[in-house]
Amino acid sequence: xxxxxxxxxxxxxxxxxxxxxxxxxxxxxxxxxxLLKEENYxxxxxxxxRGGWIYYIRCDHEKDGxxxxxxxxxxxxxxxxxxxxxxxSAINMDISPSETLLAAFTSEPYGMYSPLILYNVKTAExxxxxxxxxxxxGLQFGTADTLVYYSDRYGLYRxxxxxxxxxxxISSNIxxxxxxxxxxxxxxxxxxxxxxxxxxxxxxxxxYEFSEFGSLCVSFFPYSSxxxxxxxxxxxIFIISISAREKTELDVRPYEVTVWAALGNCIDFxxxxxxxxxxxAARSCQEGFVYGGFELWILEKF
Length: 302
What we know:
By secondary structure, this protein is mostly beta strands. It is 1% helix and 58% strand. 37% of the residues are buried.
């Protein structure tokens, strides 16, 4: 149908009849699939395993806020099974390559420190590894024997799980980071303006420096040290080509107005198919509020 618009200019009223003009309708990418949605709960920190499980943090959106803390759950990537893994409240977590060890910061700090625990999924054994200065940005397993975590005020640490020895690998104020093959680190320095670096952590050499991206959470591609995937809360999810210094937006908008989770481990790849990612998004409005909590979405194909 057409629309009638009245334009007033001085004492003259102009009537315009617009025929066949309508606002473009939002179309969701058909390659997007809703994995899990729970009313009034935020589902965060997805970690995708080779066994087809996606681990995530489930927090009460109204009680604990949109970013938690919360319990750790897991769901099959086909959505057919969903179960509680770790009943205590936690923030920021990762699952080991063997899929048996869960690393997490517990949400109850000791003073200004938050314990970093290692939880055996099969035996339910809990071991405290270290105390990170609270609040903590994130953590990531490297090889089966190493775990990297950030302690606010100090820097990026790598812990040897065989002897629990901590080694400071980057001394900096960091807003986000990702590790590639225990040799490279991509991290966001929280100065003003924020800068991003790719560092050879074996030889302590800066390979690249950026100031144009402003990333909020980052993750290396599984099989490429030259590509990063990153999220902006109100802008979307992007691929950064490191050597080309280029940014490409992905079509991952579930709703006409969407907010994406952009803290900690907010995006993960399918380890069996690097063209698939899982991420957290929520319906929003122009003011940026999150309605009902973050949901888990899968992009089936770039």
